[in-house]
């Protein structure tokens, strides 16, 4: 299989940055990122007028509210023609609101899908690139005799000679360290936990006969 002659330092730094990004996304949560981008799309899209559906939906809901309010002030028997006209307008606005809501739901699904693809393109595909083309790159070396031979062999798995460290072991080590460090950081900033109170012992008094 084809391998590329990539500088080991480039591999080490690039893989570290990618794995760090992966761990941060994992801590934040993919759904949180999607929600943040969706809110940004709503905010800036409305300002720049390339997502006018939100404005149209708000206007349609306000008009429907006003029409329903007006309908309640008249009698369907005494002012049948006016009531019927208002009712037709309400039906049309209700259909418009349903259509706009469906369009917005589809836009949300598209944004979420695009976000997922961007996350994959930025974190998963680069790792596969390095796994394929840098799988035999020597990232680090150990002097002979520092570790027992079986540890040297494990550190060189799966493609390198004993005494060298390749991409597989480097990724495992980085992932382990990053996950532990980020866990400690998130734990430090987590809300204060309430210490559970000890259950009170019930004292049963024996009644003397």
What topology emerges from the helices and strands here?
Blueprint: H1 8-28, H2 30-48, H3 53-71, H4 80-123, H5 125-133, E1 140-141, H6 149-155, E2 164-165, H7 167-188
Antiparallel strand pairs: 1-2
Could you characterize the architecture of this molecule?
- Mean pLDDT is 82; it is low at 203-209.
- Helix 1 packs parallel to helix 7, helix 2 crosses helix 4 (80-123) and helix 3 packs antiparallel against helix 4 (80-123).
- The protein has a two-stranded antiparallel ribbon.
- Helices cover 67% and strands 2% of the residues.
- With 209 residues, it is mainly alpha-helical.
- The chain has 7 helices and 2 strands; from the N terminus they run αααααβαβα.
- Residues 182-209 are cytoplasmic.
What descriptive keywords fit this protein?
209 residues, 2 strands, two-stranded antiparallel sheet, 7 helices, mainly alpha, elongated
Question: Outline of this structure?
Answer:
Helices cover 67% and strands 2% of the residues. The chain has seven helices and two strands, in the order H-H-H-H-H-E-H-E-H.
